[in-house]
Amino acid sequence: MNLTPKQQEIVNFIDGPLLVTAGPGSGKTRVLTQRIINIVQSKNARVLALTFSNKAAKEIQERIEEDLYEKVEIGTIHSFCLEIVLNKGNQIGLPDNMTIIEDYNDKLELLDQAIKSLSLELNIKFVSDKIKKYKQNLILPEMISKTEEEQDIILIYETYNNILFANRVLDFDDILFYAYRILIEKPRIAKNYMRYYKYLMVDEAQDLNLTQYRVIKALTQNFSNIMMVGDSSQSIYGFNGSDSKIMTENFVKDFHPREIQLRENFRSSANIIKAAKIIQPNTVSKSVYPLKGLLQINNFVNEESEAEWIVSKIEYLLKFGSDNVDGPISYADIAILGRNKYLFKNLEKLMSEKEIPFFDAGSSTRLNAESEEIAIFENGLKVIANKYDELSYSKVVNMVGRKKNEEMLNDLLFNDEAGDDINRAVFKKIIECWQIVSNDIDNFGKAINDMKKSIQSEKSLSDNLRFLIENDLNLWLTRWQMYCKESIVGDRNLSRFLNNVSLGKHFNNHSEGVSLLTVHGSKGLEYSIVFVLGLNQGTFPDYRAKTLSQLQEERNNMFVAITRAKRECYLSYVNYKMMPWGDLKKQQISEYLNDLTSRGNISINYID
User: Fold this and answer.
1) Annotated binding site for ATP: which residue ranges?
2) Peptide bond into 541 cis (omega under 30)
3) What is the pTM (predicted TM-score) of this model?
4) Which residues are annotated as a binding site?
5) Which segments constitute the UvrD-like helicase ATP-binding domain (predicted)?
6) Of all helices (H) and strands (E), which one includes residue 451?
7) 321 in the Ramachandran plot: left (φ > 0), alpha (ψ -120 to 50) or beta?
């Protein structure tokens, strides 16, 4: 498909700051990719493209020819900042080879150690939230006002950081925090980065928070070849501090960019775009498709009948197709969206009974083994990658039921002592795998395959445990294969691999089945058929949304949900809901559906 004049104008814009407002389905990713290719080919310059999801980064990368790879770096803001911290952190006194704490409970455990070491008694969640807020606002312990109220928090903050250093680990908030410090305290590093990368592009810029923007500003002092692309109507991460005004106001004030709007929606049919504009009148989107498509509002007595109808409709579409969709409809063409995950309970039960495959297409997969044996394996890998990681070592020895040893790494690699709860044959294979990986990371895949073969023939395992362990090992194989595609033999590093996994970078989202997604998880995805369920006041919009900005974000959520649909969108609500304490409670229709019925003349189908 040829580019439109506006799209071509963006692709041809080479030097100087640029702000692109791009509505849903406007070809944003295609334009961004073509501009990258044009810059590399016409200027022979390196480009840095920052996104907010690994999926978006992968999509851009897949559209760029291999011979251009060495000129283009594509990744999330967090993955780029982690590279800065790991490569340049020693210049502000950070230890080498740091790894990420990805589990919130692990962070709380280290915080608990800090609190107890100071003989203080404070609520750990309260302390965690305070320190998180300080780090997200780039505030060091010594920068906090030493009031009586804050004195204990300052001490805990300092002690917690010292424990992190001793274990050579980072919590998630440290990534941006230290990247910013490095760029500000060592401005030559920022200058060198932007000498190397002549162009910077920021995708989904409406999701920037102030800390991320401050990192970008620190990176781009006296630098003008920066592009931001986004859509304020799709800003849905306010709970993480994101603010679309950073793109539309701060960036405009600081960089004075050329501003171009992409209005045409090439994804969704006319009725879907009409409904989306009612929900979000300020959107720049306009329909270019002559196909009307379908937007339907359905009312049900309760959640059970809502789930039954959706499943029945899916069965019908799979069997007979739709006039609005060319060709047969597959599972991959269908998504069911809800404001929160708990709304899928009845659907999951019914779809399992009907043998309709489904999966959570928006979940990221990090270090989350289903079997205890592979959880032991994962924590051991962390210690092999970082011999100072006492937290992960403690978890291993606790799970295998033995005492700690000062020689943590040797204890893992050469001690097969384990309690009765751990299968000894599997544990011995885990130790063999650790030894192989410790000697040569490039043999990681072979070690996992050897363990798989051993598990398959191990008679002491129950079928259920064998199934769980094999699933966990297959997931590690997939991660490793993805890591190998972007690295070369001899240059691979276990800590880098584990950090990438912790950031969700090596997540292969190709499961078969109908996609079940929260609205936040659906961002950037598209489907021929979309069901949005649970559209009751208090559920969607969420009852916790009180302020004007929170209410606007909820409306943006609804806009995002509708515009995931290409051809058909089914919106539903219920009259009664069973509450967790057992009472049946009458429900109100969502204000969004009231808007669609009153302003869009869309009728409601009352289904028994």
Assistant:
1) 22-29
2) yes
3) 0.84
4) 22-29
5) 1-269
6) helix 444-457
7) left
